[in-house]
């Protein structure tokens, strides 16, 4: 486990300043300097008697602290703005350089989370990066848009299919966090059971192919080409005759056809199209 950075007020301030847009950090730096400089410029007045001694000490202390804060706070937010700009360019470069599923799967898990976050950011979401503690670190991203909150977990797996346990776990976290929905993003695929579990719940499963579509849709110059295996896989999945969504294979659990497989709409129960 990686050693966590020791938390101090200054570190927390720098982290906060770097987590917000430079368009917010710069005005805060200017306003904080003006405010603290105004207080720091106030004249010190010695106490006239014992009754004013306490208030005089408090005033002197406040002015003295302001003499430091008039520089510390603005500098922290200016540094945060610079870090924010650097990270923004880094994320943009990371996303725009993706050329296919192989480049996505060759990423580290940290880069994979940054890629997913930047894709949603370009889709108009406000993105909070949790910077998880490792490759399996809980909620990786929190998205906000139109007053709704979504939690995201990212898995950069090359071959494994995501099963029901991980999806069920994320669904439980969504409920505990009082989020509106949850999104699971994988560079691989999902088992049929996992898709069946998610289909009637506020769960959005994004597999490798759908992730490529998402990234390509927000690239400045789309450069992603899908390998033939993905194209063939997509071609083998029929569209719903009622709503046009992808269909998933299901097994009949009752009726005359019990035990047989059929294609059902992935939007069930909103859509009941079958083939």
How would you describe this protein?
- The structure is a single chain.
- The protein is α/β, with parallel strands linked by helices and 275 residues long.
- It folds into 3 domains: 9-89; 101-236, Trna Endonuclease, Chain: A, domain 1; 237-275, no CATH class.
- Helix content is 48%, strand content 15%.
- It has 9 helices and 9 strands.
- The protein has helices spanning 9-19, 22-40, 53-96, 101-105, 109-122, 164-176, 192-198, 208-218, 228-235, and strands spanning 126-129, 141-145, 148-155, 161-162, 181-186, 189-190, 203-206, 247-251, 261-265.
- The strands form 3 sheets. It has a 5-stranded mixed beta sheet with strand order 1-2-3-5-7, with helices on both faces.
- The longest helix has 44 residues, at 53-96.
- The protein is elongated and about 100 Å long.
- The protein starts with 8 loop residues before the first helix and ends in a 10-residue tail after the last strand.
- Residues 133-137 and 228-235 have low confidence and may be disordered.
